């Protein structure tokens, strides 16, 4: 070992789903949207003046922040924009979780949370979800340094109603509570309606799933302006120009097109309902999905075996080796044609 090794910060990174570069594949492994971004985004891409790239972007991300605020009927000072919600949440861990007491998040949830906690040296505890992958709200009544959970949850697709969210808020007035709503648009009700009553609530959303713009990297938080200011202070102590010119320009167009957004969501939810029926008929079991993916286990075929067999045929789904979920597949809802290929594969395999 080199002498300098001992001074190096060593971390165990998050492992994202693979991004294979194949012409013909069915990609259902990272919860991307199978439909293109809104038509206004295409226009903005075509009209974008490449000379603008010589200038730094607006460090306040003013226009995009304003567009997002208008969409949610809040003030611009209640919105913080970042490079995907991963960037927003990382900034929140750094800024809000600065206590000696452990932060709390469910044992089965977004696996990035423990990575950030370890990176920043934040103690954490992970109360176990019940056997149906539901949050046990009483587990969050204990003393803690902050709380974060995804709703709907990832990778289970389970949605908890706002009563549970509010109950957790009621019992935690003295710490920051973050609700990660990466999948809220696929059928849930956003906790943004609670921000005026809870000054310690932060709600995070993203363009990556419901707005078909994972490649553009746009995420944001909505909540108390005082907390938003602390987030901006942390951001400007790190890198002021995180949001690039194109993300800002295209992001504004995407959030303005409500009709296209609703249409795309309706299509994905309809495909989800169809896929649910077909998978149940094949012997799969899954909690009621409220996101753009289904978290399924099969009574007879081990998930790992199915995952590998699918991969052989260039059908990509996600498989996790973590305890309690290592016999499940997380399957993104793609187009009807893509789901037909998936179901067709299962029918053939299980014959
Ligand atoms: C996808 C996802 C994110 C991150 O999305 P970004 O692409 O960084 O906006 C955050 N939380 C959960 C639960 C997710 O599934």
UniProtKB/TrEMBL annotation:
<dbReference type="InterPro" id="IPR005861">
    <property type="entry name" value="HisP_aminotrans"/>
</dbReference>
<dbReference type="InterPro" id="IPR001917">
    <property type="entry name" value="Aminotrans_II_pyridoxalP_BS"/>
</dbReference>
<dbReference type="InterPro" id="IPR015422">
    <property type="entry name" value="PyrdxlP-dep_Trfase_small"/>
</dbReference>
<keyword id="KW-0368">Histidine biosynthesis</keyword>
<feature type="modified residue" description="N6-(pyridoxal phosphate)lysine">
    <location>
        <position position="209"/>
    </location>
</feature>
<dbReference type="Pfam" id="PF00155">
    <property type="entry name" value="Aminotran_1_2"/>
</dbReference>
<keyword id="KW-0028">Amino-acid biosynthesis</keyword>
<dbReference type="InterPro" id="IPR015424">
    <property type="entry name" value="PyrdxlP-dep_Trfase"/>
</dbReference>
<dbReference type="InterPro" id="IPR050106">
    <property type="entry name" value="HistidinolP_aminotransfase"/>
</dbReference>
<keyword id="KW-0663">Pyridoxal phosphate</keyword>
<feature type="domain" description="Aminotransferase class I/classII large">
    <location>
        <begin position="24"/>
        <end position="344"/>
    </location>
</feature>
<comment type="similarity">
    <text>Belongs to the class-II pyridoxal-phosphate-dependent aminotransferase family. Histidinol-phosphate aminotransferase subfamily.</text>
</comment>
<dbReference type="GO" id="GO:0004400">
    <property type="term" value="F:histidinol-phosphate transaminase activity"/>
</dbReference>
<comment type="subunit">
    <text>Homodimer.</text>
</comment>
<keyword id="KW-0808">Transferase</keyword>
<dbReference type="InterPro" id="IPR004839">
    <property type="entry name" value="Aminotransferase_I/II_large"/>
</dbReference>
<dbReference type="GO" id="GO:0030170">
    <property type="term" value="F:pyridoxal phosphate binding"/>
</dbReference>
<dbReference type="GO" id="GO:0000105">
    <property type="term" value="P:L-histidine biosynthetic process"/>
</dbReference>
<dbReference type="InterPro" id="IPR015421">
    <property type="entry name" value="PyrdxlP-dep_Trfase_major"/>
</dbReference>
<protein>
    <recommendedName>
        <fullName>Histidinol-phosphate aminotransferase</fullName>
        <ecNumber>2.6.1.9</ecNumber>
    </recommendedName>
</protein>
<keyword id="KW-0032">Aminotransferase</keyword>
<comment type="pathway">
    <text>Amino-acid biosynthesis; L-histidine biosynthesis; L-histidine from 5-phospho-alpha-D-ribose 1-diphosphate: step 7/9.</text>
</comment>
């Amino acid at each position: 070992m080199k002498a300098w090794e001992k001074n190096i910060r060593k971390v165990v990174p998050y492992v994202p789903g693979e991004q294979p570069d194949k012409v013909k594949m069915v990609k259902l492994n990272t919860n991307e949207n199978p439909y293109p971004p809104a038509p206004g985004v295409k226009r903005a891409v075509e009209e974008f003046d490449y000379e603008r790239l010589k200038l730094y972007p607006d460090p306040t991300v003013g226009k995009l922040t304003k567009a997002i605020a208008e969409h949610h009927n809040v003030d611009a000072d209640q919105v913080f924009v970042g490079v995907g919600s991963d960037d927003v949440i990382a900034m929140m861990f750094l800024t809000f979780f600065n206590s000696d007491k452990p932060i709390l998040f469910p044992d089965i949830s977004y696996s990035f949370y423990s990575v950030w906690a370890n990176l920043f040296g934040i103690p954490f505890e992970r109360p176990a979800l019940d056997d149906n992958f539901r949050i046990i709200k009483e587990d969050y009544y204990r003393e803690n340094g902050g709380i974060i959970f995804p709703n709907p949850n990832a990778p289970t697709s389970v949605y908890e109603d706002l009563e549970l969210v509010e109950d957790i808020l009621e019992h935690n007035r003295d710490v920051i509570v973050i609700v990660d709503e990466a999948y809220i648009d696929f059928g849930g009700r956003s906790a943004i309606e609670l921000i005026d009553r809870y000054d310690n609530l932060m709600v995070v959303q993203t363009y990556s799933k419901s707005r078909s713009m994972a490649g553009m990297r746009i995420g944001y938080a909505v909540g108390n302006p005082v907390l938003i200011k602390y987030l901006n202070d942390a951001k400007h102590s790190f890198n002021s120009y995180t949001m690039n010119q194109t993300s800002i320009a295209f992001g504004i167009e995407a959030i303005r097109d409500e009709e296209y957004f609703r249409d795309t969501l309706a299509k994905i939810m309809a495909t989800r309902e169809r896929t649910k029926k077909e998978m149940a008929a094949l012997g799969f079991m899954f909690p009621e999905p409220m996101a753009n993916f289904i978290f399924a286990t099969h009574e007879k075929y081990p998930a790992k075996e199915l995952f590998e067999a699918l991969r052989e045929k260039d059908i990509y789904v996600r498989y996790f080796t973590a305890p309690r979920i290592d016999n499940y597949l997380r399957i993104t809802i793609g187009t009807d044609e893509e789901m037909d290929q998936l179901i067709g594969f299962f029918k053939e395999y299980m014959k």
